[in-house]
Amino acid sequence: MSTVLFDEPGPKARRRIRVATVLGTLAALALAALAVRQFAANGQLDAARWQPYATWPMWRYLLDGLWSTFLAAVVSAALSMALGLLLALGRVSPRAWVRGPAATYVEVVRTIPALLLVYVVLFALPRYGLDLPLFWKLVVPLTVSNAAAYAEIFRAGVNSIERGQTEAGLAVGLTRLQTMRLIVLPQAARRVLPSLVSQSVGLLKDTSLGFVVSYGELLYSGKVLAAYNGLLIQTYLVVALIYLVVNMSLSKLARTLEARQPASSVTLRRRTARA
């Protein structure tokens, strides 16, 4: 049985993939050229419309929004990883009364869109007297949602460690908890580090849901700025460019970390891609 999500493609499959890649790239370039042409025809590429974004006040406002995005992403990632690690330990626990609730949480939450959780925190909880501050109206649903994904990543890492290491730890007198903390978890964390970074990239993009709760992250800042200066297309293109640079940088970091992992960890990365 294959240990990855798909088998290695053969020569014919690789040729088809290359052809599909070339055709897809040409189609994307054609659409981009058409879009640029339409923008030019409607005056959207006029220098006067882009000149405001050569000034510092505009960029300072957007960078403030980017800082708010990073703050929400970092706090959400830290809380999600901590909760995800607890859920992963629960899922590999030998005790059914611990394993069952952890598995139920992961399987249920992974099927619920993060936007729905945002609406629950925004509209449902205040009816029961729990009206969170604006920052936490974004962070809490992101934490609840992403904890399930991090849990699956950590669980895959723990399961990838050879059982003999756990048995060796128990044999020298360590408890099961000590064996997990001192032997298994440090190795598992190193193996799943690229997957953790990749999941964090997705979490960073999810912070755009702050638009719903009026949290001043990057996308919401772009909305306010476009309403102020009337440059809708220019503003959202600049915002998209900022997201592109940030997410591509984090994705590059994930690929670099993956390249430094041993072959077994690369296989594990492929197995946890669906987490």
Could you characterize what this model shows?
The protein is mostly helical. 80% of the residues lie in helices and 0% in strands. The chain is built from twelve helices and no strands. It has helices spanning 11-41, 47-50, 56-91, 96-109, 114-127, 134-160, 163-171, 176-206, 210-213, 218-229, 232-259, 263-271. The longest helix is centred in the first third of the chain and has 36 residues, at 56-91. It is globular and about 75 Å long. Mean pLDDT is 84; it is low at 1-5 and 271-275.
In short:
The chain is an all-alpha fold and 275 residues long. It is 80% helix and 0% strand.
Q: From N to C, what is the helix and strand string?
A: HHHHHHHHHHHH
Number of distinct beta strands: 0
- Terminal Cα separation, in Å? 20 Å
Largest sheet: none
What is the overall number of helices?
Answer: 12
The oligomeric status of these chains comes to single chain
Indicate the overall shape: globular
Q: Tell me roughly what share of residues is in helical segments.
A: over 70%
Integer-rounded radius of gyration: 23 Å
In the predicted model, the low-confidence regions spanning at least 5 consecutive residues are 1-5, 271-275
Average residue-wise pLDDT: 84
Strand pairing plus helix content: what structural class?
mainly alpha
